[in-house]
Amino acid sequence: MFKETQIPAQKIVGGIHFPAIVSPDPATQLDFRRFVDGVKDHRPRLENLLHTSGALLLRGFPVKTAADFNAVIEAFGYEELPYVGGAAPRTRVVGRVFTANESPPDQKIPFHHEMAQVPEYPSKLFFFCEVEPKTGGETPIVLSHYIYERMKEKHQEFVEKLENHGLIYTRVLGTEDDPSSPIGRGWHSTFLTEDKNVAEERAARLGMKLEWMEDGVKTIMGPIPAIKLDPTRGRKIWFNSMVAAYTGWKDLRNDPVKAVKFGDGTPLPYDIMYDCLDILEKECVAMPWKQGDILLVDNLAVLHSRRSFEPPRRILASLCK
User: Fold this and answer.
1) What is the dotted CATH code of the domain comprising 144-280?
2) pLDDT per 10-residue tile (average), the chain, 321 residues
3) Max Cα–Cα distance, the chain, nearest Å
4) Domains 2-103+124-132+288-320 and 144-280 share a fold
5) First vs last Cα of the chain: how many Å apart?
6) What is the 8-class DSSP label of residue 152?
7) Distance CA 265, CA 20 (A)
8) Which residues of 165-176 are buried (b: 16+ CB within 10 A; e: fewer)?
9) CATH class of segment(s) 2-103+124-132+288-320
10) Of 76, 75, 101, the residue nearest 90 (C-alpha)
11) Structural domain boundaries of the chain?
């Protein structure tokens, strides 16, 4: 039923294909219900591929709609993680499925681990291509431990300071969502409430400080680690949203250079930030989306981003504990 395949866009890192790709066995007659049952039956094998590679692409299966996608997520059996504290504007579609970042198509979204700027982050991410982009719109992925190793080779003192002090993230939120901004989620949807007291309680549980303003709120998160240990693989990972914040957290309320700094309050060096961005771009894999693709990402192993695109494009997502 499930056949491992390779395509030219993959990379081989440490002898492992990245990402792992599974497609239907040509000898198998596969309808949607049989596919969902197959996910349940073959879950250990699929999870092993995910753990070994860091990302798993399911391509060529009969998945057409958001409801189909939701059924596949349920078949994997992971618990849902509510999107509390994240920055991206999103809309719930059905069940556990919501839209991926809805910022304008001409904007790139830089590399990040999902919700790395808060202590409660997903362990796994699902993405689904409901409508292929006309052009562009890839979701590039890159292995986090490899970026840590490259950065430590080139910028050892910088990485040591990151490990010692962590990062502080600052973001100014309006009341309502701003769809023109890649970080335009207002505080109502960020904290899933319109009550300031409830927002304060939920922020406090995240270790986040709030400073209320006339037309919104400033959130201050950290110091929070920027380098973590991946416990299941026993290696250090580049687990942060540093480059995303420094190069991409820009809108009418936010200056990206002020959005992130070392945990001791000192600014991050411009040249190293953009060198890190260059390393991420050079080492990533960016496969064009095909309708029906499901990409499962281990959020501890892999950073992801989004390239600009020409509409139409509809990518859906789900977060798992």
Assistant:
1) 3.60.130.10
2) 93 95 90 96 98 98 98 98 72 93 89 92 97 97 98 98 98 93 92 96 95 96 97 96 95 95 98 98 97 98 97 96 92
3) 63
4) yes
5) 28
6) H
7) 40
8) bbbbbbbbbbee
9) alpha beta
10) 101
11) 2-103+124-132+288-320, 144-280
